[in-house]
Amino acid sequence: MHIADMTMFYATASGGVRTYLDAKHRRLKLYPGVRHSVLVPGRRYAHEAGLHRVPAPLLPFSRGHRFPLRRAPWRDLLQALRPELIEVGDPYVTAWAALDAGRRLGIPVVGFYHSDLPLLASNRFGQWAGRRCDPYVVKLYRQFNRVLAPSTVVADKLEALGLQSVFIQPLGVDLDLFNPQHCDDTLRQRLRLPDHTRLLVYAGRGAREKNLPVLLETMRRLGAPYHLLLIGSGMPRRVPANVSVLRRFCPAQEVARLVASCDVFLHAGTQETFGLVALEAMACGLPVVAANAGALPEIVPFFAGRVCEPFDPASMAAAVREVYEADPYLLGRKARQHVEAHHAWDAVVAGLITHYQAVLGSVELPVAVHG
To answer: Within this chain, do residues 224 and 143 fall inside the same structural domain, yes or no?
Structure first.
């Protein structure tokens, strides 16, 4: 089986989509008889170990992302590679190129709905823009042989638009990289904090939809001995005294070490289609306190943390106190066990192979369709 993946969401500072593709690429190498090609944007044509870069212009102020403008280079490369199945991970030019190539090659094309396009448009341009995107999403995703969604909340949205047979395919975590064993006992000392400090953490982009002001107000309400470490580019500069900021992009190994060295992970985002960073924190042995919105409630069970009212610092502060009363270390151990049982990348890739075999008609599908 030769599988081709393609997406524009692939840059040095990319988030969940690149994590998904890299993990998938590593594990598919272990499958006998499976070949995996990944097509992503680049400055020029290049190919190394199954990763193909296709020229595309750089998006200004986008942390290295590139936006393909023409279908032909992507379609032509797919035709030259001649895969048996294509999966596309964004709803833009590459998606249409994949559909073109699929028709010409006579092969199925799977669409993985990683990001909520109407919601993104609403955030940036207003509700009218989101509503204008709904028909586009329906027109595009009706053409795929199968649509995958990372969470129930996303699948529900797609089905509410009129799309049928949307399959839920959760993402996974690198359990070796995100591991409690990477805890650095010197972190409090390096942050010049007392040993008894209750150390919270958030790692990710400082984007508006992450609702970082909610975290800052939560910390003002909590006060000492609670302290929050913010990790990532675009973080706020003016913060309460009990907040420390590491304002730069950090590689995954550094994020894993820092997160594993804290007590509790906070996430105030309300628009997550999956919430991979929260799952990575759970793999590090941390309970999660998250907004009860988006996909976060699906991946944070009660025994592994708490959910709180969205946009409500008082509710989040109360949830943090409740986690400490319940013992964050016990909750963290249960969080790790939950991720090991349900979100190992090997299990995720095995599920993907099942989807691929189903659309290729090679096996009876043994997974339940959403709805």
So the answer is: no
| Cα–Cα dist 13/252, whole Å | 10
CATH classification at residue 216: 3.40.50.2000
Residue listed under structure tokens 């804290």: 262
Tokens of 53: 């870069």
Distance from C-alpha of 178 to C-alpha of 354, rounded to nearest angstrom:
26
**Per-residue model confidence as pLDDT tens digits over 256-272:** 999 999 999 999 999 99
Predicted TM-score (pTM) of the model is: 0.90
Domain residues for the domain of 19 are: 2-172+344-360
Residue 296 CB contacts under 8 Å (≥ 6 apart), including other chains: 267, 269, 272, 275, 278, 288, 290, 307
* Domain annotation covers residue 366: no
User: How many structural domains comprise the chain?
Assistant: 2
In this structure, are residues 273 and 150 in contact, taking their beta carbons and an 8 Å threshold? Answer: yes
Same structural domain for residues 277 and 236?
Answer: yes
Cis peptide before 225 (omega within 30 of 0): yes
Nearest to 276 by CA among 20, 64, 11: 20
